[in-house]
C-alpha cells in the first residue's frame, strides 16, 4: 500500500480503540495504533514512541541472574529491604557516579522505577495531611502523571521551557509557598526534552525543598547519558548532577532498564537519603503503626504492592552495579549509541522542514540522546501525530508529557537497522512534498 495511508484506516483504528484524542494517547496506545495500521496496510512502521532498549542486555547481569536461578533463589521470597549484595553495590554505584553518600540501608529494590514512583507518590501524599499535592516539573514521563490520577492524588505542574536558571526559583516557590506540595518530580536528563538541569538549578530545587519541607523524587533513568560531558568514569569528576548534593529530602530512582538495557526484568533501586529514611512521621505512625519513612516505604507500600522485588533480578543489578563501579562495564560508552542515532534522525527531520522544540539547554544546544522533541510550523501536537501516522511514523504527542509546546516526542532506541534511517528520510520527503513549508 502506498503512503500516505488513507485517513479512514487511522480513523477506524482510533474508533476501535476508543481513543477520542490522539494527542492524549498513552505510549502503549500509540504503539497499538501503529500495529493495527501495520497489519492492515502491510507497511512497516518506524516506532519512535516507546523507550524500549535497543541494545543487548549487559552480560554481567545475565550471567549473575542465571547463576542465582540455578542456585535456587526462584523458590525463595526475597528480603523486602533487598538482598545485601544489591544494597551494598547500589550504595557504591551512587558514590562512584554521583559522588553522593547513601547508606546501603537506604537503597531499596523496586519492580522498576515505575513501581518506585507509584509507591513513592502514594507515601508522600500521606506524610502530612496538609500536603496533598505532587508537583511535576514538566515535560515528563507520561505514565507518572497517570499514576497520580489512578491514586487520586492532586497534582500541579509547570513547563520548564520558560523557567530555566534564575526564573526557576520564583516559579517553584509560587507552588511551594501554598504549603500543599508533598513532593517535586522531574527526570534528569529529561524525558522527553533531554534538557539537563544544571547544578545551580538543582541547588535551587534542593534549597527550596528543604525550606518548604517537600520531598524531591529525582528520576535518573538516563543517568550519565548527557553525552556532552565525559561522565561515567567511576569515582572521577565530572559526576552526574543531582539534587542530593543540596538537600536531605530526596529519593533517587535508579533503574537498570536503560543504562544496562535490562528493562525486561523490571529492576530498579529507590535510594532514600539517610536523614529522610530515618525520619519519623506521626501520620504514618497513626495510620500504619510504622513511623519511620524508610521502614514504612518497604513494609507498607512496597509489601502491599508486590511483596518484594524479583530475587534473581536483584542479583543481576548488583552484578552490573559492581562491574560499572569497578570500571569493567562502560555503560555510558555503550549507551552513547543512542546519541549517534539521535544525531542522524535529527538531521533527517531538520532537512525536511521540522524543528527541534526543546532546542536549547540554557545557552547550550540540547544534547543528543535517547529522546528529543520535534515540531512542524502550522501543526499542533495532535495534528502532527495523526499526519505522521499516515506516513508510517509512530510517536507520542508532547501534550501527553505535560508540555505546553506543540510537537511530538521521538525515541531513537528502536532505530536499530540502517535501512530504517533511509525509510525515515523517504517518508519525511514525501510528507514535505505534500505539506509545503
Topology record:
Elements: H1 7-16, H2 27-41, E1 46-47, H3 59-70, H4 84-98, E2 107-110, H5 112-125, E3 133-138, H6 142-151, E4 154-159, H7 168-176, E5 181-187, H8 199-211, E6 215-219, E7 250-255, H9 256-259, E8 268-272, H10 274-277, H11 282-288, H12 293-306, H13 311-325, H14 331-335, H15 337-351, E9 355-356, E10 360-361, E11 364-365, E12 371-375, H16 381-390, E13 393-394, E14 396-397, E15 408-411, H17 418-434
Parallel strand pairs: 1-13, 3-4, 3-5, 5-6, 6-7
Antiparallel strand pairs: 2-8, 7-8, 9-12, 10-11, 12-15, 14-15
Helix pairs in contact: 1-2, 3-13, 4-13, 5-6, 5-12, 7-8, 15-17
Features of this protein?
17 helices, seven-stranded mixed beta sheet, single chain, four-stranded antiparallel beta sheet, alpha/beta, 437 residues
Structural account:
The structure is a single chain. This protein is an alpha/beta fold and 437 residues long. Helices cover 43% and strands 14% of the residues. It has helices spanning 7-16, 27-41, 59-70, 84-98, 112-125, 142-151, 168-176, 199-211, 256-259, 274-277, 282-288, 293-306, 311-325, 331-335, 337-351, 381-390, 418-434; strands at residues 46-47, 107-110, 133-138, 154-159, 181-187, 215-219, 250-255, 268-272, 355-356, 360-361, 364-365, 371-375, 393-394, 396-397, 408-411. It has a 7-stranded mixed beta sheet, sandwiched between helices. α3 runs antiparallel to α13 and α5 packs across α6. The chain is globular and about 65 Å long. The model has no long low-confidence stretch (mean pLDDT 96).
